[in-house]
Amino acid sequence: GKRVKGVQVYRPFIYGTTARPFNDTDNPKPPGVPIDHTHSWQVFVKGVDDTEVFYWLRRVQFKLHESIPNHLRTIDAESIIRDNESKPPSKRQKGFVVSETGWGEFEITIKLYYDSKSGEKPQTLYHHLRLHPYGRTEAEKEAMRSGGEVVAWVYEEQLFNEPFEEFYKALTTG
Ligand code: SLL
User: Fold this and answer.
1) How far is the CA of 81 from the centre of ligand 1 (A)?
2) Tens digit of pLDDT for each residue in 124-133?
3) Neighbour-count burial for 34-72, b at 16+ CB within 10 Å, e otherwise
4) Below-50 pLDDT ranges, the chain
């Protein structure tokens, strides 16, 4: 295929984790969750402002800590799109998400796989799962706890440099 010369396409996305401590009010521990688990958490890759990413990001593999059952989680855009068809718009998944429970922090390896038309190699990101508020002061930590959540999110832009024509079409009409 031919490349579109002199063209750079950027697609913004967000990745990271959101964690909530279990408590007796708004986040009770579901039945069957091990006694030593203290938090529910999610790791995700999604678009900015609810924009879709599935037209350029086709698969995400999350590598969790080996203490977690089935620690390699691979999610295909295709299966999310299929699931979304039977859901009302407000319930549709906008990104790649893994939900878990646990007790400890660790580094998550996130591997991004692009549309095959792009010719791009997979890219690896590393993200530290945060369960506990962090900051230099109690005020900073309190700010992180707002809403009972510890968020650790990163904004990124994916650059496609001189994309193949066919992929460029998908990028700009997606
Ligand atoms: C630590 N280096 O010692 C880290 C390891 C591992 C966290 C944290 C297990 C969850 C499950 C879990 O939370 N592992 O058993 O499903 O803090």
Assistant:
1) 31
2) 999 999 999 8
3) eeeebbbbebbbbbeeeebbbbbbbbbbbbbeeebeeee
4) none
pLDDT of residue 49: 87
* Closest C-alpha among 70, 138, 125 to residue 98: 70
Q: Which residue minimizes the CA distance to atom 3 of ligand 1?
A: 104
Between the CA of 172 and the centroid of ligand 1 the distance, in Å, is: 41
Distance 10 CA to ligand 1 centre (A): 35
Q: pLDDT at position 50, please?
A: 80
Residue 57 CA to residue 169 CA, distance in Å, equals: 15
Atom of ligand 1 nearest to the CA of 102: 13
Structure tokens at 117: 């038309």
Place of tokens 């203290």: 38
> Would you state the pLDDT for residue 29?
95
Q: What pLDDT was estimated at residue 134?
A: 84
Pocket of ligand 1, beta carbon within 6 A: 65, 67-68, 102-106
Residue 95 C-alpha to ligand 1 middle, in angstroms?
A: 25
Bridge partners, 152 (sequence order): 17
Residue 146: what pLDDT?
A: 65
Query: What ipTM, to 2 d.p.?
Result: 0.92
